[in-house]
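Batch manifest line 194
LIGAND: NAP
JOB: complex structure
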Amino acid sequence: MKTYPSAKDRISGYACDLSSPDLEANIHHLFAQSGDKLDHVVFTAGDELAITKLEDATLERIQKAGLVRFYAPLLVAKHAVKHLNPGPASSITLTTGSVSEKPNKHWTVVASYATGLHGMIRNLALDLAPTRVNLISKSWCGDDTVVGWDAGGSDGRVHEDHQGEVYDGGDWETGGCGGVISVDFIYCWSEKTD
Ligand SMILES: NC(=O)c1ccc[n+]([C@@H]2O[C@H](COP(=O)([O-])OP(=O)(O)OC[C@H]3O[C@@H](n4cnc5c(N)ncnc54)[C@H](OP(=O)(O)O)[C@@H]3O)[C@@H](O)[C@H]2O)c1
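JOB STATUS: finished
ARTIFACT:
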């Protein structure tokens, strides 16, 4: 609303903690606040990536890594459908990343959930029909220049090795990573039916 003050009368926002043990109650509360006349639900939340060596991946860490990135979108879809206008014009769009198809070393925990989202949306599309269910799988996008944590992901190096390094998106074959505007267009396109 700070960025688009002219739209303040038609935009509203509600906070929802997706990493809490009260995840489902929080999501239920979120939709209760947003009402029953929704056309589209888009899920883009993501917490810190649980990049870790497999020997350090305890059950507790694995479960924690899935809260925001796997269990939350599943429960959002479950509750969203009750608040969407019925029919194929309505949609739910979830988000995953390219690691769901192209592995990175030490990303097994992250990739397991990321790839699981492909199966999730195919089955949701059946369970929630006629509401459409989409999945956007992004590669690197945002700022071309990134410091540190993800610098060497695609060739198997992990963030600990790259603290303080600057990764220049010019290394991409296209000369840069996806911009925010072009990514936003993909979400808008997924909502369209014509
Ligand atoms: N950027 C990329 O290169 C890239 C590549 C592949 C996939 N993706 C995926 O695309 C999605 C969006 O990425 P992004 O780069 O836009 O991420 P981002 O800028 O880090 O934004 C993440 C969002 O998730 C929210 N969030 C984090 N923890 C949360 C929690 N516990 N409860 C509720 N919301 C929480 C944050 O809210 P606050 O601002 O309030 O903290 C923030 O709005 C993520 O799922 C990411 O994995 C991104």
